[in-house]
Amino acid sequence: STDHFPLEEDRKKIPFPYADFGAEGLESAMSGFLAHCPLEDAVTLWVRLAAIGPRKVLNWEPVSLKVGQCADFTIYKPTSQWIFQKQDIKSRSKNNPNIDRQMKGSILGRLRGSHWLPISEK
Predict the structure, then answer these.
(1) Terminus of the chain with fewer CB atoms < 10 Å: N or C?
(2) In terms of Cα–Cα distance, which of 115, 111, 43 is closest to 77?
(3) How far are the Cα atoms of 42, 92, 99 from residue 80, in angstroms, in the given order?
(4) Is residue 100 pLDDT above 90, yes or no?
(5) Distance CA 118, CA 70 (A)
(6) Is residue 24 a contact partner of residue 6, using CB atoms and an 8 Å limit?
(7) Sign of CA dihedral 36, 38, 42, 48
(8) Is the full-model pTM beyond 0.85?
(9) How many Å apart are CA 24 and CA 81, to the nearest integer?
(10) Torsion region of 113: left, alpha or beta (phi above 0 gives left; psi -120 to 50 gives alpha)
(11) pLDDT tens across 40-81, in order?
(12) Residue 103, SS3?
């Protein structure tokens, strides 16, 4: 799981016993998983663990495609290779354990209805 509870840098850059818990990880979760998962079909496993599994645990309806239903898709490129940099972080919190690490796969954006919300060009 990943949480998104952004903290200002000064709340983290203090002696460890006094620092607040947490790190920004939402923006690199999928790419970090794909970069380090040794299984051949890591994308399918990611979808099952990050999208399908939580809906089951929360007793939410599975995502489905139905006529007349508003489309809501995340578009990603599973084969891209890149280095996660601090400037890639959109959150106000800039502490992320994946900074300067090799990543695989990138989320390009979200399509909701006919509205495109770009996230990345990687």
Answers:
(1) N
(2) 43
(3) 14, 25, 17
(4) yes
(5) 18
(6) yes
(7) negative
(8) no
(9) 21
(10) left
(11) 999 999 999 998 999 999 999 988 888 888 888 889 998 999
(12) strand
The pLDDT of residue 1 is 64
Q: What is the rounded CA–CA span in Å between residue 79 and residue 66?
A: 29
Which two structure tokens, joined as six digits, stand for 116? 């495109």
In the structure, what pLDDT confidence band is assigned to residue 94 with cuts at 50, 70 and 90?
confident
The number of residues making up the chain comes to 122
Backbone angles phi, psi at 107, to 5 degrees: -85, 120
Report DSSP letters for 42-102, one per residue: HHHHHHIIIIIHHHHHTTPPPP---TTSPPEEEEEEEEEEEE--GGG--SS----TTTT-E
| pLDDT in the model for residue 122 | 62
pLDDT of residue 121: 64
